[in-house]
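Schema walk-through. Below, the input block comes first and the output block second. Nothing else is stored per chain. Lengths vary across the set, and this one has 89 residues.
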Amino acid sequence: MKPTIWNRLQAEQCTVLEVDERFGKIMSVKLSHPSLGRALWFPISQKGNFYWRNTGGAGEHYAEGYIVVGGLDGLVGAPRAYPELALHE
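--- output ---
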């Protein structure tokens, strides 16, 4: 697996547009952020971090990605129906 260069996005600058919930569990969130060209779907990792990763082509040595720093809560546009988005590090 390629090592990833992570770009950090501050949660308070993110807006949650949609939430993908399955079987009562949040699987991913669609986020917009000023540094993103378009809104992207961020799955949740086993550690509880929201991330987006692009491995690129076969000739590239590194993958690039975004990781959300901080909790996504109602104050930053997350629906109040999902209080579990307010994750704590």
